[in-house]
Amino acid sequence: MSRATPRTRGTRQRLFDAAIELIGQRGAEAVTVDEIAAAAGVAKGTVYYNFGSKNELVAQLLEYGMGILLEALRGPAAEARPGADVLAEVRGMVGRALGFIEGYPAFVRLWMGEQWRAGGTWQPVLAGMRAAVLAEIRAALERVAGKVPPVPGHDLGTVATALFGAAFMVGVDRVSAVPAKPAGPAVEAVVAVAAGAFGLREPADDTMSHQ
């Protein structure tokens, strides 16, 4: 298969941008190909030329956003430096997750809306996305566990799920507020889930102490 030209990549990006905004607002089932094409400033046939169908467009849109999120979660390798606070990597991951929610609100609405739609068309894609995110979070927790054992009875898979849920709920709540709530206390509220699982107390001078 030949590589996409810059023009083709630009067209696909416009379609992604238009689709994510429309679908994030109204849901994938309610948005038509005609509406996506009009919002992107292209002919209806261009959608089919680039993606084949609306379902394929949405599937690739979900995968596209997930790639950005996973890259954000992995973050810079320098964060895992010797002598750092054992929760520094988790804290950085949570901060970047909240940053992603703030930067891509339409994608988050699309993801969350389709995630809870029973029997939705994109459930296999969404299941893979969720598994990939949880794997990244669990890997970070396992690195913490290599330094500090978790409190007995705390399963790292369950803790990863709790962090995932907390980060998205706190992140959405933060950006929905007017004005937006500060990031520091939001990050620390989520990190507290991991701190509790490892029996760690947050430093007295962290951002949670500054209201």
From TrEMBL:
DNA-binding positions: 32-51
Pfam families assigned: TetR_N (PF00440)
Example GO molecular function: transcription cis-regulatory region binding
Superkingdom, natural source: Bacteria
Keywords, sorted A to Z: DNA-binding, Transcription, Transcription regulation
Domain HTH tetR-type: start-end pairs: 9-69
Cited PROSITE patterns: HTH_TETR_2
Protein's name according to its UniProt entry: Bacterial regulatory s, tetR family protein
